[in-house]
Write a structure and sequence with these properties.
The chain has 475 residues and is mainly alpha-helical. It is built from 22 helices and six strands. The chain crosses the membrane at residues 70-93, 100-119, 125-143, 155-178, 198-214, 221-242, 274-290, 355-374, 380-397, 409-433, 453-474.
Length: 475
């Protein structure tokens, strides 16, 4: 039997009204639209410093290795974790969905857990592994329905928008379009766009990327990042700007050794503050669970996969792929893996089976050849992706019932608190606390479950302990 016939039988092409050529094209399309994560995730996850050696972006730093080497390690890990999840999606779940470390949770990892809370990155990885194992267990026993009911609906709908604003703030600051209090005298202000070459090129690159995206160009985000980086290198080589301003002073040597990262989570379990660790695990799990579930349903709708009740049949299988990817990613050294909404582009091209995902996974592995380029792309260029994705995520706000005060207040608190405290966890907590309070105030306390009251109470205690400086490692 020919390979094409074997693949057709295994993935069920006839049953899903598709063929090998369509599935391959769909896989290529999905990869192009989500491949930006290969260069963006390492930039978000790695600690970055300025010329004076001051930390400008918190994250993973490994003694004895340069920033460029750590970025390349993280690029390798990003690819391997993504491929692991995608292959499970292809061969076990037989769905055309691509997966990779999620934007938002990698920022939570670096900026909140490692940066604001002062928790070692090894412990943050231990939390990712714990969340992944917990996700595997709960998926295996089919506890999804109970968990979904436990979290307030307005908070679930608001998280995406809040994360979008959070990502936009991180991206705009890295691009020097927005500056902080130490430079502006206010909490936030517009950067010096007229004379700062980084800000100028960032603005041009951002609008060029948005124009590509608006025109429906496949791979618009990664294309915008590459074009902006090439412009920076060109201006540097042409002598318009000094070395180190718009481009690194030199290309780094290739670094494929991930031994310093892989298995580092084991050390992270030592001297763990149980309360803080539980909050980190909870946040990773909450965002990962609902982001993945929401994406699966959304992309499933585009592919006409949903049943008459609007549910994705056998959703536990793609959820298991997500859980396995998260666990593998944490073990190797990256943050939580989730299903990408960009998978919808492949579905729109006709992708209907796991063959689409298999192509995506193989292309991720092939991209190992260009890992050194991850460190050659300047931070301002890679952060364009954060702003573009942030704009896309703002669309989630339309799902909130703003005319219902019991929804608008918890959702509003979630969205506002998340970017202003630089913490996804605090935004979720604010929404969860406000939900039962508002429900009780409007005479609808019967709609609040005991589990929701317990969650709200636990977060109140946490805020008291956290802001009181009781937690070890508190900022």
């Amino acid at each position: 039997m020919a390979l094409a016939d074997t693949l057709a039988d295994f993935f069920g092409f006839e049953e899903h009204d598709t063929d090998l050529g369509t599935e391959i094209l769909a896989g290529i399309t999905t990869f192009l639209t989500m491949s930006y994560i290969i260069v963006v995730n390492p930039r978000v996850m790695a600690q970055q410093t300025n010329a004076e050696g001051e930390v400008t972006s918190p994250g993973i730093a490994i003694e004895g290795y340069t920033e460029a080497e750590v970025i390349q390690m993280l690029a390798v890990v990003t690819i391997l974790a993504s491929a692991a999840a995608i292959f499970v999606m292809a061969l076990y779940a037989n769905r055309p969905f691509g997966q990779a470390p999620g934007l938002g949770l990698n920022a939570f990892f670096a900026f909140t857990v490692v940066g604001a809370m002062g928790i070692p990155w090894e412990t943050a990885l231990a939390a990712v592994v714990t969340e992944g194992v917990l996700f595997i267990f709960l998926t295996a026993i089919g506890a999804r329905e109970y968990i979904i009911k436990l979290f307030p609906e307005p908070v679930k709908f608001a998280v995406g928008t809040g994360i979008g604003l959070f990502l936009a703030l991180i991206g705009l600051e890295a691009m020097q379009i927005v500056v902080g209090a130490d430079q502006a005298g206010t909490i936030l202000a517009l950067g010096n766009l007229a004379s700062n070459p980084v800000a100028i090129l960032s603005v041009v690159g951002l609008f060029a990327t948005l124009a590509l995206y608006a025109n429906g160009i496949r791979g618009s985000i990664i294309l915008g990042i590459i074009l902006t980086a090439l412009a920076g290198w060109g201006l540097t080589l042409g002598g318009v700007t000094a070395e180190g301003v718009l481009a690194p002073q030199s290309l780094p040597n290739a670094q494929y050794n991930i031994a310093p990262l892989a298995g580092a989570f084991v050390e992270g379990f030592q001297n763990v503050d149980a309360f803080a660790f539980a909050l980190i695990v909870f946040t990773f799990f909450f965002v990962d669970f609902f982001d993945t579930a929401g994406t699966l349903v959304g992309v499933g709708q585009a592919g006409d996969f949903l049943d008459e009740n609007g549910n994705l049949p056998d959703i536990d299988k793609p959820l298991m792929a997500d859980a396995v990817g998260t666990t593998v990613g944490g073990i190797l050294g990256t943050s939580t893996v989730t299903t990408y909404i960009e998978s919808a582009t492949g579905v729109e091209e006709g992708g209907r089976t796991g063959m689409t995902a298999l192509v995506v996974g193989l292309l991720f592995l092939l991209s190992l050849a260009v890992v050194p380029l991850a460190a050659a792309i300047p931070s301002y260029a890679s952060n364009i992706a954060l702003v573009v994705v942030a704009i896309i995520m703002l669309g989630n706000v339309t799902d909130i019932r703003w005319n219902d005060v019991t929804h608008s207040i918890p959702a509003g608190m979630t969205i506002i608190i998340m970017p202003l405290t630089f913490s996804i966890a605090y935004g979720i907590a604010a929404g969860i606390i406000s939900y039962p309070v508002v429900k009780a105030a409007t005479g609808e306390a019967r709609d609040v479950s005991l589990g929701q009251w317990a969650l709200a109470g636990a977060f109140i205690v946490y805020f008291f302990v956290r802001t009181g400086g009781v937690l070890t490692g508190a900022a």
